[in-house]
Amino acid sequence: MTSIEPRVEVVSPTRARFQVRSFDLHTTLSSGQTFRWRSTGTGWTGVVAGRPVILRPTEHGIEAEASVPVADWSWLTQYLRLDDDFEAVMDSFPDDEPMRAALMSCCGLRLIRQPAWECLVSFICSSTKQIVQIEQCIELLSQRFGSPLVSFPGHEPVWDFPTPEQLVMAGETNLRACKLGFRAPYVLAAAKSVQTGRLNLVELESMTTSEARTALTTLPGVGPKIADCVLLFAYGRQDAFPLDVWMLRGLAALYFPRRRPSPKRLRDFADTHFGPWAGYAQQYLFHYARRHRPDLRTRKAKAS
DNA sequence: AGCCAGGCCTGTG
DNA sequence: CACAGGCATGGC
């Protein structure tokens, strides 16, 4: 798979500019793959690798401002996947009508490379919740159990995402109070598994996608969909193609109009039709269905 | 008001 | 394998 060298221009101890094309911050950071970014009008504030950071679009890419001096910006270029050869990614998508529509209406949508632990907890919290509710849960967990960070002058206080140890210390009752509901024991079990080393999130990097999926789904509350989200959004596995309610409806309506494909058929289609960057294609179709096809919002979605 | 949410688990045909 | 019900909580 081809990759490119990110172009970084350091403009001050706390600021850098990244030259990149086809990267829409708004579309990307509100696409339901991350849950801690907030729009501040001119930019987006978030926490990456324990550093509060503000991202703003510029004429030639993205400008980043950190709350403390930064010697090496590679933590951010990795997070933003600026080494992806994005032209090659888009060229790899199948040339069919749904993909063309998704590409047209989701210009600059990118995948992010998230820390595995935060990603795992986020998607454990995601089951039968709307994206705004997931954001609330993750914010509450961070505020109550994460370590405080140095914020920007005049900005709200910021906390790091809590470690497994911090969530174990919190206990199930306090996790429940973050609106986790029945997911609280699942998050606690995941925290204990990682803390004790029973599940080593670093070791997953060297496994095949199938092996890593099996390891993740041993956790209670983690089934194939959540595992695929973690594999795609944290481990960059392009053969992970999360099938949630939106994707099942979207694939059926867009690719199998007036037929009734079984879930198994859709699974097989997802795994074979989209090429080497299938995970990326999935994100385009998900965002397209959710944002631009309100007719797919109901359970009985019809083809247009 | 009531349906449903980037699901999963358990139990049944 | 397919489907049903339950699960907390709240947005729209």
How much of the polypeptide forms β-strand, as a percent range? 5-15%
The parts where pLDDT drops under 50 for at least 5 residues are: 300-304
Q: N-to-C terminal Cα separation, in Å?
A: 36 Å
* Number of alpha- plus pi-helical segments: 13
Taken from the alpha-carbon principal axes, the silhouette is globular
Summed over residues and divided by their number, the pLDDT gives a mean of 95
Query: If strands are numbered along the chain, what order do they take across the biggest sheet?
Result: 1-2-6-5-4-3
Count of strand segments: 8
How does the major sheet shape up? 6 strands, antiparallel
Structural class, by secondary structure, is alpha+beta
What value does the Rg take, in angstroms? 19 Å
* Helix coverage percent: 40-55%
H/E element sequence: EEHEEEEHHHHHEEHHHHHHH
Description:
- The chain is of the alpha+beta class and 304 residues long.
- It is built from 13 helices and eight strands.
- The protein has helices spanning 25-29, 74-79, 86-92, 97-105, 116-124, 131-145, 164-180, 184-196, 209-217, 224-233, 245-255, 263-273, 278-292, and strands spanning 7-12, 15-19, 38-39, 44-48, 51-58, 61-66, 148-149, 158-159.
- The protein has a six-stranded antiparallel sheet with strand order 1-2-6-5-4-3. A two-stranded antiparallel sheet has the order 7-8.
- Strand 1 and strand 2 (15-19) form a beta hairpin.
- Helix 11 (245-255) crosses helix 13.
- The longest helix is centred in the middle third of the chain and has 17 residues, at 164-180.
- The protein is globular and about 55 Å long.
- The two termini are 36 Å apart.
- It binds a DNA duplex (13 and 12 nucleotides) through residues 32-33, 123-124, 126-134, 136, 176, 179-184, 186, 220-226, 229, 242-247, 262-264, 286, 290, 298-299.
